[in-house]
């Protein structure tokens, strides 16, 4: 056999052996053998055993990637699409950091022309600030008063930065849910598009209970709550009206002498709610006048433009706001962030436009897959599909990019310390070595993030997506934690043979 043909045959045999070993090899790691290879075999064997014994069959996908080399250390259904639940927020947060930048801030402004202390038309214009609150509107109103505003004739809200689809895609799957985790999104949304219902007992038994609401003009209240002995029982039924307001019918009772009970619920129309919240803020700032709200959802009311800016505010930095996605898994923040990305791409901002930004980042990170399908940015409900390998490739890209690594890693929950992982990994040694995003739906448990080693560049990216977990959340979470713990132990073995600088 000619010498060159022999060399080709040897190379082909080597490639075949590597491909059939179950562990992908990278050029940077091929020189390691002996104890290093044995430790890697032990790791893959341990994870394989964990997956097999958990009996989730083909409803689990696992991908583990070395962030330094790109070596795939373990793969089980890693190219198959799974419902990621809130692990979708990993993609949303990453795309936002890259597309908008860590220093991005969302703006909100009050616009109007002051003539003799009077403002005929006051416009509240927003650009998707998810942190906008009732107290922030009071500050804006006070700033306007400091500029000489004494009375306002009518109030408009300009939400044109986003499209008019306030309910994110897939959220219609649970139409009767009024909890704030299913909040609508608009370019001007106050208090996370939710309201706090405060109920206090009357002076004595038999008296009507007291109801307190911020932005009271938004609510058409029918209060039939009584003060009576027994446990508090509040039944609240809400409906949107064509006028842009919301009917709120209350039944039940609260015991005399008890403390206030509070319920957080979603609003039906975030733009109308913001308008009425502004009129309440104007009143608190001493600004008089009819302050008549022009229904922002009515198509025949064009928002006036070219008005002078009276007051403005900016949100915190994007890097700070992303804590709400990674550590607190807030669906509202995720969907607002997605639509901001859409608006910065093409106005008015849409969920679809935001997802185009997500897909563009996946392509840049070489993480695209035909198994992926995206409908919203939070992962709530049914519709999203992601391959675990897509998540780990994106995690590796973000970890290796010096411009984003610090902010991206810090937005994730720290095992045993904070966020949704505060009560998990508490006994893991060393502490703080798991940084990850959880995911939970009725049929889904997920965990994706990093196992951190001793050196800054010594990290493994992992993604564990389990579908078919209904009724088995406990075992599914235990499996996720066991795999992550195995990765940490692998990284912290005394003579692992990796760089310690």
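Sequence proposed for the structure above (501 residues):
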């Amino acid at each position: 056999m000619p010498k060159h043909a022999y060399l080709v045959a040897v190379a082909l045999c080597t490639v075949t052996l590597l491909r059939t070993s179950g562990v992908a090899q990278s050029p940077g790691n091929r020189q390691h053998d002996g104890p290093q290879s044995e430790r890697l075999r032990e790791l893959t064997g341990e994870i394989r055993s964990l997956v097999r014994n958990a009996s989730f069959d083909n409803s689990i996908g696992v991908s583990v990637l070395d962030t330094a080399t790109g070596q795939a250390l373990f793969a089980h259904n890693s190219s198959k699409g799974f419902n990621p639940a809130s692990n979708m927020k990993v993609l949303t947060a990453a795309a936002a950091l890259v597309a908008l930048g860590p220093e991005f801030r969302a703006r909100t402004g009050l616009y109007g022309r002051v003539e003799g202390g009077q403002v005929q038309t006051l416009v509240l214009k927003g650009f998707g600030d998810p942190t906008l609150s009732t107290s922030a509107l009071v500050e804006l109103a006070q700033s306007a008063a400091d500029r000489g505003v004494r009375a306002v004739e009518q109030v408009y809200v300009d939400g044109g930065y986003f499209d008019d689809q306030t309910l994110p895609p897939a959220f219609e799957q649970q139409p009767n849910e009024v909890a704030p985790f299913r909040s609508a999104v608009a370019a001007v949304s106050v208090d996370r598009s939710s309201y706090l219902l405060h109920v206090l007992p009357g002076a004595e038994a038999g008296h009507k209970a007291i109801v307190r609401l911020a932005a009271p003009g938004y609510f058409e209240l029918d209060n039939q709550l009584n003060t009576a002995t027994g446990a508090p029982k509040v039944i609240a039924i809400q409906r949107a009206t064509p006028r842009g307001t919301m009917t709120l019918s209350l039944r039940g009772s609260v015991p005399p002498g008890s403390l206030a009970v509070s319920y957080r619920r979603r609003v039906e129309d975030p733009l109308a709610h913001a308008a009425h919240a502004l009129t309440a803020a104007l009143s608190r700032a001493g600004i008089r006048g009819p302050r008549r709200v022009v229904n922002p959802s009515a198509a025949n009311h064009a928002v006036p433009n070219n008005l002078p800016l009276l007051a403005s505010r900016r949100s915190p930095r994007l890097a700070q706001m992303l804590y709400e996605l990674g550590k607190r898994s807030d669906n509202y923040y995720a969907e607002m962030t997605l639509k901001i990305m859409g608006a910065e791409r093409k106005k008015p901002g849409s969920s679809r436009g935001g997802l185009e930004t997500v897909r563009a980042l996946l392509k840049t990170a070489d993480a695209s897959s035909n198994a992926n399908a995206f409908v919203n940015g939070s992962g709530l409900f049914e519709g999203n599909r992601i391959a675990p390998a897509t998540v780990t490739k994106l995690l590796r890209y973000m970890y290796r990019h010096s411009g984003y690594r610090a902010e991206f890693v810090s937005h994730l929950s720290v095992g045993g310390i904070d966020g949704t992982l505060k009560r998990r990994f508490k006994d893991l040694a060393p502490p703080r070595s798991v940084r990850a995003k959880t995911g939970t739906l009725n049929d889904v448990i997920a965990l994706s993030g990093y196992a951190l080693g001793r050196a800054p560049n010594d990290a493994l990216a992992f993604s564990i997506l389990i579908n078919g977990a209904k009724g088995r959340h406990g075992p599914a979470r235990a499996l996720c934690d066991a795999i992550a713990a195995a990765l940490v132990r692998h990284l912290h073995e005394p003579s692992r043979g990796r760089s310690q600088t």
